[in-house]
């Protein structure tokens, strides 16, 4: 694994590159809460609509949708080939979240963006 981290000015700082090719990957992490009685519908929506829609966004590299069926709490982590791709996909991602929120009664707790510092 390449152990470089890009600083804010674009220079290498010396930590980790997430994809092993010296490229910096970025992530959007969304914390949400779905009514427990809608968790099964949420799973169906994630797999049949949200993931296929995300795959169409330029720069999308993959994602994980994590959930606790008992509480309805969830975390989605989407990976992007660059910070620019993450930012360029914001409007589409917002629309996908908005549609899911309306259909599921989903509440968004937070949306954060990160640089991926490493992976195994």
What's the helical proportion of residues?
A: 25-40%
Which secondary-structure class do the elements indicate? alpha+beta
Q: Report on the biggest sheet.
A: 4 strands, antiparallel
> Which overall shape is indicated by the principal axes computed on the Cα atoms?
globular
Output the strand order for the largest sheet.
2-3-1-4
Overall pLDDT: 86
Strand content: 25-35%
- What distance lies between the first and last C-alpha atoms, to the nearest angstrom? 9 Å
CATH class: Alpha Beta
* Domains, number: 1
Radius of gyration: 16 Å
CATH architecture classification name: 2-Layer Sandwich
Q: Please report the number of helical segments.
A: 3
- CATH topology descriptor: Alpha-Beta Plaits
Q: Tell how many strands the DSSP assignment holds.
A: 4
Give an account of the 3D structure.
With 120 residues, this protein is an alpha+beta fold. It has one domain (27-114): Alpha-Beta Plaits (2-Layer Sandwich), CATH 3.30.70. It is 32% helix and 28% strand. It is built from 3 helices and 4 strands. It has helices at residues 39-55, 83-88, 90-104; strands at 26-33, 60-67, 73-80, 107-115. It has a 4-stranded antiparallel sheet. A hairpin with a 5-residue loop joins strand 2 (60-67) and strand 3. Helix 1 (39-55) runs antiparallel to helix 3. The longest helix has 17 residues, at 39-55. It is globular, with a radius of gyration of 16 Å. 19% of the residues are buried.
């Amino acid at each position: 694994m390449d152990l470089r981290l890009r600083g804010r000015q674009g220079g290498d700082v010396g930590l980790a590159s997430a994809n092993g090719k010296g490229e910096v990957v970025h992530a959007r992490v969304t914390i949400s809460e779905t009514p427990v009685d809608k968790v099964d519908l949420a799973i169906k929506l994630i797999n049949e609509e949200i993931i296929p829609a995300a795959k169409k966004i330029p720069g999308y590299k993959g994602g994980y949708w994590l959930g606790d069926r008992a509480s309805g709490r969830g975390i989605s982590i989407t990976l992007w080939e660059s910070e620019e791709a993450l930012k360029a996909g914001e409007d589409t991602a917002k629309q996908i979240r908005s549609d899911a929120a309306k259909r599921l009664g989903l509440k968004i707790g937070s949306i954060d963006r990160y640089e991926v510092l490493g992976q195994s």
